[in-house]
Write a structure and sequence with these properties.
mainly alpha
Length: about 150
Amino acid sequence: MNVAVSLSKASWRGFTMKCPNCGQGHLFGRFLKVVDSCEACGEDYAPQRADDLPAYLVIAVVGHLVVPALLAVEIAYSPPAWLQLLIWLPVTGLAALFLLQPVKGTIVGLQWQTGMHGFKAAKCRRDREPRDSAAPLPNLTSKELVR
């Protein structure tokens, strides 16, 4: 029996670069190469289609963090252009580099949990499987069971 995985849990597991299904196996074989299947639970990740969405999201997030910081430094200190470039180019590049893999993992977890693209068959299979109950059943009296 499996335990149902919520959207937030699948996304978080993807963000931490772990298998959205079991949370144990590695999601990536190389930097941005998603493994074909989880080494721990065997979940198939061949149908994933993250494409360019992670890059667009990273550009938006990094831009919204770096540009206000750059403008604040410019207004407060007015450093020369070469110093601005020396500071903000590495910050932007490293932030994008460090966020790209977790964001792609989040997108793969989102696709897996919602059954997008080729994950539809896996979602249908998961929905048919019996699950362990995370919450205990309430104590019902015989009158409540008859209703």
